[in-house]
Design goal:
The protein is elongated and about 80 Å long. The protein has 10 helices and 4 strands; from the N terminus they run E-E-E-H-E-H-H-H-H-H-H-H-H-H. Helices cover 66% and strands 9% of the residues. A 4-stranded antiparallel sheet has the order 3-2-1-4. Strand 2 and strand 3 (19-21) form a beta hairpin. It has 2 domains: 2-96, Orthogonal Bundle (Arc Repressor Mutant, subunit A), CATH 1.10.10; 99-182, no CATH class. The longest helix is centred in the N-terminal third of the chain and has 22 residues, at 40-61. By secondary structure, the chain is an alpha+beta fold.
Length: 183
Amino acid sequence: MSNSYILRKNKLTFENKVEFTVSNSIINDYSLKEKNSISRENYLEIVKIAMKNYVIFLLAKRDYFRKDLEDKLYIKYKEKKIVLEIIEEMENREYLNDYNMAKQYINSHKKYGRRRLEFELKRKNIENSIIDDLLSENIHIEIEELEKNVEKMIKQSPEKIYASLMRKGFQYKDIKEAIDRRK
């Protein structure tokens, strides 16, 4: 089985709608200028090389959760097996670390309460044990943030305070305690 493609400058577009840029060395190594199709084996090799280069480029710019990077790669390259290989390699090299990303996420989203953080981290496929550990470490910061929010909103009606803070993921009983301490 061969894969037909069109090469424009350094951009390869395949018949399956997969499209990505490749280096000049890949173009030369696989003689892509002289042909218009390649074997499935060569296609997978090229995808793997291009994907790995793309992942390194992405991770050099910022950190990613595993799920976010996996989804991004699958959408672009459509090769689940290679995506999983590359992701595993990046984790083994410690370029990708969900525990550290979750910790960083919690620290940069202090305005949210436990429930909202839990929800967001579960969407990122973070294990429940990691979420519980990190949020337990964060409990004093959450209470401080809740106190600050109540302080700012104290002139509003209790209903508005509860509604606003519950949307941010704070628990009803914690909000009630914080309001009671202000009285």
